[in-house]
Amino acid sequence: MSSKGKVASSVAGERINSELFTLTYGALVRHLLLDLESPEEVNKQLDRMGQNIGVRLVDDFLAKTNTTRCRNFKEAVKTIADTGFKMFLGIDAKVTQIGDKECKMVLNDNPLIDFVELPEKLEPLSYCNLLCGVIRGALEQVSMKVEVLISKDPLKGDERFELHMKLLEYINEEYPFADD
Amino acid sequence: MLLSLFVVNKSGGLIYHRNFSSLAKLDTNDTLRLGSMWHSLHAISSQLSPVPGCKGIELLEAETFDLHNFQTPTGIKFFAVAECKSHGVDRFLKRVYNLYADYVLKNPFYELDMPIRCELFDLQLTSEVTLTMN
Amino acid sequence: MEKQGQGQEGRRGECAETCFDLLLIEMIHLYGGRPTQGTTTTTTTTTTTTTNATEATPKANGGGVQERRPSGAQERGPGEAGAGPGGGPGDGLESMGFQVGCQLGERYSKSRASFDDTLDIVKFLCKDFWTEVFRKQVDNLKTNHRGVFVLYDSKFRWLRSASAGKMMGDNASAAAVGAGSGGQPGQGKTTVGDLLRFPCGLIRGVLFTLGIKAVVSADVASSLPACSFTVKIQQQAK
């Protein structure tokens, strides 16, 4: 695993100080809160933007890590935890309670929430919802339809940041000559 | 020696084509048609496999040329036509995938699945081709 | 979201630049693509008098951070969009840049004792700040000595993956099967001007934090990764 981590940060391309990323994300969330009517709408928007990012990010990941195939949910989830988070956010993630269709992923650290405190009135805001969208968008590109939710959130008093992932279905690769 | 490169999106649409040699003479319509036919042919080949998990044609050897196909897990095909027994074509295709990730997907003007018209990608590709040929 | 001004400076974590690049692209697709004046982005500061108190002290420590950030946010409240003199279309990008600029300006200037004058601050922007964020210095700085500075960057980092070659020509449809899976939320075509709104705001934010009110606009020079930012000082550092 540690070797994978090393590989991850060396092939990831240019590294930047995460401050710029974190603060820019903060500015985006704040702006969406001003623009949209409710925190719930902001959650949706963040999720959508995340999905669009995931769709592009996955090719960046695959091209740089030379990953040829993620055959199943378990494999994909492990790849995300072992390599993906390290490579893109510079953090370690651990998969717990893994099954064929469901798992939890614990992040040891989450740069997105540096500097952030959630006021009480924003309780419904899922500040890091972008991450859920990114993972969903990325896995959809490799034929897996998943649902990702934030199950533990330090911004809401939990100790660790945790994602709950659930496989909904494998999308069959398109075969252009299906009989009908 | 590389003769030409095709990039086909996951729906079978040709999104990029370039000739590296004056030998290759196909007009735009031909390339579009051939690109999407290759997509289908590739799908058939994986269906033909009696063994599950087949990734389809990776190399097609003909009398006068080789066709190397690299399909990403996201379903994009990068394939190159080269002279028989050319070396380094597979590595070249993976490099092109990298260039695609950097100069196409990160180009704010690029819309996904659409034809690639990115100067920077063209430029980088040119130098990659030069590298591969030497 | 209260930002914790103090006690967080220790963290120097790294992430892949890809993350930032793709986030910015999404922000541009969401807030850009609306009509602008050619490739020029112009924004006007709409500072209210209440912010003067905080900006009179260009260098503040700890506590000042707390005060200044909210003031930056007030600058473009929700109701102000499109209303104020600077509320041009799509200025979301500019104001997000402004917010980040204020925060980064604060962070990156911490090690500096003080600034002599406006020129000193602009130099800080062109050297130290630019190096932190864009990994190189501004290539050329010009001024008319009457409050206008032109910053020229021959390879502006945030344009390095942008190819202007207009996409999606008319004959594209033939090959464009299966579009729509990407689901761009964009309302229109992204322009180069859209790409530069965020950095314009960023620059304005840095200067604002250091006590200068300015108007920042950007132009793409002859070819793409090169661009220049014009800073018109409205109120000098005290």
TrEMBL record, chain A:
Record's subcellular location: Endoplasmic reticulum; Golgi apparatus, cis-Golgi network
InterPro entries documented for this protein: Bet3, NO_sig/Golgi_transp_ligand-bd, TRAPP_component
SUPFAM superfamilies recorded: Ligand-binding domain in the NO signalling and Golgi transport (SSF111126)
Keyword 4Fe-4S: no
Keyword set, alphabetical order: Endoplasmic reticulum, ER-Golgi transport, Golgi apparatus, Transport
GO annotations of cellular component type: endoplasmic reticulum; Golgi apparatus; TRAPP complex
One family name in Pfam for this protein: TRAPP
One GO BP annotation of this record: Golgi vesicle transport
Entry function: May play a role in vesicular transport from endoplasmic reticulum to Golgi.
Quaternary structure note: Homodimer.
Homology family: Belongs to the TRAPP small subunits family. BET3 subfamily.
UniProt name for this protein: Trafficking protein particle complex subunit
TrEMBL record, chain B:
SUPFAM superfamilies noted in UniProt: SNARE-like
Gene Ontology process terms (BP): endoplasmic reticulum to Golgi vesicle-mediated transport
Endoplasmic reticulum listed as a keyword: yes
Subcellular localization, as worded in the UniProt entry: Endoplasmic reticulum; Golgi apparatus, cis-Golgi network; Golgi apparatus
Keyword Endoplasmic reticulum: yes
Gene Ontology CC: one annotated term: Golgi apparatus
Top-rank taxon, per record: Eukaryota
One Pfam family this sequence matches: Sybindin
Entry keyword set: Endoplasmic reticulum, ER-Golgi transport, Golgi apparatus, Transport
PANTHER family to which the protein is assigned, alphabetical: TRAFFICKING PROTEIN PARTICLE COMPLEX SUBUNIT, TRAFFICKING PROTEIN PARTICLE COMPLEX SUBUNIT 4
Subunit field text: Part of the multisubunit transport protein particle (TRAPP) complex.
Family in the record: Belongs to the TRAPP small subunits family. TRAPPC4 subfamily.
Name used for this protein in its record: Trafficking protein particle complex subunit
The species this protein was found in: Chloropicon primus
From TrEMBL, chain C:
Biased composition (Gly residues): 79-91
Biased amino acid composition, Low complexity: 39-51
GO CC term, one of those recorded: TRAPP complex
Gene Ontology BP annotations: endoplasmic reticulum to Golgi vesicle-mediated transport
Short name of any one Pfam family annotated for the protein: TRAPP
Region spans: Disordered: 33-96
Sections of the chain in a coiled coil: none
TM stretches of this protein: none
InterPro entries: NO_sig/Golgi_transp_ligand-bd, TRAPP_component, TRAPPC6/Trs33
Family to which this protein belongs: Belongs to the TRAPP small subunits family. BET3 subfamily.
Record protein name field: Subunit of trafficking protein particle complex
Organism: Chloropicon primus
